[in-house]
């Protein structure tokens, strides 16, 4: 589904997109998940993922969630460095959240306490700060917990 305002297309991602997702992961994060970790998450119960591609089908971003009952968790969202600040992550998250809203599904996520741009994006999308997870990351960095009720 392409929005005329967006220079990219959004579609559901599957395990068949693993190589593209792993490549995006590798260029987007200092400590990327391995292909095995991504495959396990994509193939897991309740996995929901979306991929952003250019009109030429070049992958430029992805978002990965896990849904259990009436709640989803954002596991990963990544944008290719050349496509940052072009609303790829926002487009992916808006797409997912619209589907969650239709199904009455709440969403939560953890974000690094020092990742201010991501926190601003999550607040714009209707997430509220709900708590702090001390030492959450492998490097002992803290994470803020954000939640969003269905309907935003």
What tags apply to this protein structure?
single chain; 152 residues; alpha+beta; Aminopeptidase; seven-stranded mixed beta sheet; 4 helices; 7 strands
In short:
Helix content is 30%, strand content 32%. With 152 residues, the chain is of the alpha+beta class. A 7-stranded mixed beta sheet has the order 1-2-3-4-5-7-6.
Overview of this protein structure:
The protein has 152 residues and is of the alpha+beta class. The protein has a single domain, classed as 3-Layer(aba) Sandwich (Aminopeptidase), CATH 3.40.630.30. The chain contains four helices and seven strands; from the N terminus they run E-H-H-E-E-E-H-E-H-E-E. It has a seven-stranded mixed β-sheet with strand order 1-2-3-4-5-7-6. The protein starts with 8 loop residues before the first strand and ends with a strand.
């Amino acid at each position: 589904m392409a929005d005329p305002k967006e220079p990219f297309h959004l579609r559901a991602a599957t395990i068949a997109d693993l190589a593209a997702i792993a490549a995006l992961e590798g260029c987007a994060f200092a400590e990327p998940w391995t292909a095995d970790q991504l495959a396990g998450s994509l193939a897991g119960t309740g996995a929901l993922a979306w991929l952003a591609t250019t009109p030429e089908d070049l992958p430029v971003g992805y978002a990965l969630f896990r849904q259990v009952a009436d709640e989803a968790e954002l596991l990963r969202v990544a944008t290719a460095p050349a496509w940052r600040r072009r609303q790829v992550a926002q487009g992916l998250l808006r797409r997912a959240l619209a589907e969650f809203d239709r199904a009455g599904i709440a969403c939560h996520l953890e974000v690094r306490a020092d990742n201010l741009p991501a926190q601003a994006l999550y607040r714009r999308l209707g997430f509220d700060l709900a708590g702090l997870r001390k030492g959450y990351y492998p490097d002992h960095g803290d994470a803020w917990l954000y939640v969003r009720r269905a309907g935003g």
